[in-house]
Amino acid sequence: MSWIMNPEGDGQGRSVRQRPPKLNNFPKQGPAGSAPGTPTKGLRTPGSASSVPGSPWAEFPMKDRYPRVPDPVIEEREVSTKAANRPFLAYSQYKQRKEAEHEAWLKRKQEREAKVRRGEPVGPEEPDPTEEPEVGCLGLLKFIFITFAIVVLAGKFFTGSYLWEQDLAGKIRALVPEGNQRLFSERMLSTFSGEIEGKPIYLAIDGDVFDVSNGRATYGPGGSYHFMAGRDAARAFATGCFATHQTHDIRGLSDKELASLAHWKKFFGESKKYRKVGRVLHEPIDPMSPIPEHCDPKKAKNAPENASKQAGHRDEL
């Protein structure tokens, strides 16, 4: 290591070291048997155009005028305090200081043990000051708490929400097994439209009730499909008449509309975002009451035919 700290040597008797100068003279040497000084074809001679060039560093001396200190590795040797050596010197001083502290602690420990053997009162045992401290459970809990606080505050700073705009309550509810599902009345279902703070958002489709709280931006107040929350709008899912068909009455629907209704029931039933929470109990529909008119005039003309087909199908069953 000493050569790393002091690559220029001990430096005794000189303060400036220079690289070797250019080699200006070569002995003229001919082939065997020729007289000294006789030029030979194919050999480079000094002064000729093909002579060997000198070192390019000859004119750049390595100056080291930094103070010198004892070498911590090799005794009776000094090294420079230049920037390249300072990390090694600082580490050597650190090791020497730690060794001195450890020796002092051992001495105090021996004195304490001697007092204990003599029966003299002593204070609590002093830990080794050079021993690396262990993290322990308290340190781990402190690290977890600080990390959690940083994440929460960062969420508030970047998104305005401590939970990074995540519906934590909805995700926790989704992890809870369904178990026995609830039976809702129409009046009870209407209280889950998202307008009451703290309550989830439910919608029903053909009697099945689904929790759509994870889609609050869509089904909550101000959302594009908020009118479906808190009610069974099965007919609107089938016909697309969202303004006039907010009812569970599915009489007179065509086969295509019934297939659309089945598609939406399957969508909510198999969705990973929403989950089924129960069923809604509807009051019986008066069969003599008029069927809701379709919002499309062309499809409204075919409604009586569809109703008669459904009636005939029920009679066959």
Automatic annotation (TrEMBL):
What InterPro entries does the record tag this protein with?
Cyt_B5-like_heme/steroid-bd, Cyt_B5-like_heme/steroid_sf, MAPR/NEUFC/NENF-like
Q: Which GO terms describe its cellular component?
A: endomembrane system; membrane
**Region named Disordered:** 1-71, 111-132, 282-317
What region holds the Cytochrome b5 heme-binding domain?
A: 184-281
Query: Where in the sequence does UniProt note compositional bias of the Acidic residues kind?
Result: 123-132
Q: Which GO terms describe its molecular function?
A: heme binding
Top-level lineage group: Eukaryota
Q: Could you tell me where the Basic and acidic residues compositional bias lies?
A: 61-71, 111-120
Q: Which family does it belong to?
A: Belongs to the cytochrome b5 family. MAPR subfamily.
Kindly provide the name given to this protein in its UniProt entry: Cytochrome b5
